[in-house]
């Protein structure tokens, strides 16, 4: 975030200030990033003739609005001098345009109209495995964060991922059959969402999780950290792919931190695949190669003659399972729909 566009502004140039969205999960990393950004803005505001270089929008996707209030109270003295917005968005906004998507025994994908009205909790509970639920939940949070960026007119999104977390995501995405998403999800750069260009940055990409933990401890931020559901006692079978990979990196971090940086370095070198892509009906990610075509090479039950109605990526196909199905939102809202939805809310 050393870029010219974030620097302190003088005179009448406030109109050009970018709005920066910081999604806050209340994990150590995003709280540490929040603390750093607030200090950065405070520094910028020390000169009386200067105005802060960017406007901060802090976002939590969840139902815990009380925690946001506690955070604001903790920083109230500094925040008085700054321009910052705080938003808690109910992830239920994700639920729209539901349809039933099923995978036949022959690996063909069918879309049928849906008559059930399920809430977000019910949608997620359709998946038996914790890993699939977590995979879809991550998508919900990501989608709602990007929609909020559009709704609040932010041109920049900063994620609190540490180097350890990025390494976890790179291996987890690969294991979940979402390797093609690595480049646009984890590399810094521009993405397009609902017709809007968003500059995505991971400012903590060079910092290890253990270093963040220490920063949080020294800064007295522990009281704000949301405790994660404990999974230590569960058998490996019940763990999500992300949990398994995270545990692996936690064990190597103290002695072999270079393993983590190597994974991130290699992951960052990956580019999005070339060629025309279709869009997955469930996660809206690009599909460069229909998974059915190579599943046919591995399985006898896959039938080449039976065509799919709609495209489904490999990651989502595995989540649904062959012979399985689920009700899920099958489209993204347009920019106009996002804006209309947020105006209604406010
Ligand atoms: Zn998908």
Automatic annotation (TrEMBL):
Q: Is Cytoplasm set as a keyword in this record?
A: yes
Keywords, alphabetical: Cytoplasm, tRNA processing
Q: Enumerate the InterPro entries for this protein.
A: CTU2, Rossmann-like_a/b/a_fold
**What are the GO MF terms of this UniProt record?**
sulfurtransferase activity; tRNA binding
- Cellular component, GO annotation: cytosol
For this entry, list what GO says about its biological process: tRNA wobble position uridine thiolation
Q: What SUPFAM superfamilies does the entry give?
A: Adenine nucleotide alpha hydrolases-like (SSF52402)
The name on file for this protein is Cytoplasmic tRNA 2-thiolation protein 2
Q: What is the lineage of its organism?
A: Eukaryota, Fungi, Dikarya, Ascomycota, Saccharomycotina
């Amino acid at each position: 975030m050393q870029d010219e566009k974030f620097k302190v502004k003088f005179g009448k140039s406030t109109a050009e200030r970018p709005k920066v969205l910081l999604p806050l999960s209340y994990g150590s990393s995003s709280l540490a990033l929040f603390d750093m950004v607030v200090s950065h803005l405070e520094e910028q505001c020390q000169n009386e003739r200067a105005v802060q270089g960017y406007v901060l929008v802090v976002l939590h996707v969840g139902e815990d609005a009380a925690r946001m209030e506690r955070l604001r109270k903790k920083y109230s003295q500094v925040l008085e001098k700054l321009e910052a917005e705080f938003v808690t968005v109910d992830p239920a906004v994700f639920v729209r345009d539901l349809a039933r998507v099923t995978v036949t025994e022959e690996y063909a994908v069918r879309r049928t109209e849906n008559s059930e009205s399920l809430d977000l909790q019910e949608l997620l509970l359709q998946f038996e495995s914790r890993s699939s639920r977590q995979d879809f939940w991550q998508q919900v949070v990501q989608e709602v964060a990007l929609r909020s960026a559009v709704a609040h007119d932010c041109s920049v999104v900063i994620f609190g991922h540490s180097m350890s977390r990025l390494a976890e995501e790179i291996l987890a995405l690969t294991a979940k059959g979402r390797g093609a998403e690595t480049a646009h999800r984890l590399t810094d750069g521009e993405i397009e969402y609902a017709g809007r260009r968003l500059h995505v940055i991971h400012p903590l990409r060079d910092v290890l999780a253990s270093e963040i933990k220490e920063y949080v401890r020294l800064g007295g931020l522990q009281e704000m950290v949301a405790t994660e559901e404990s999974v230590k006692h569960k058998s490996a079978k019940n763990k999500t792919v992300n949990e398994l990979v995270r545990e692996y990196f936690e064990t190597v971090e103290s002695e072999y931190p270079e393993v983590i940086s190597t994974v991130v370095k290699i992951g960052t070198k990956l580019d999005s695949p070339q060629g025309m892509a279709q869009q997955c009906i469930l996660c809206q990610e690009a599909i460069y190669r229909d998974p059915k075509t190579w599943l046919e090479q591995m399985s006898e039950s896959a039938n080449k003659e039976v065509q799919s109605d709609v495209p489904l990526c490999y990651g989502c196909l595995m989540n649904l399972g062959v012979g399985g199905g689920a009700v899920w939102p099958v489209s993204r809202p347009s920019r106009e729909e996002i804006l209309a939805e947020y105006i209604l809310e406010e």
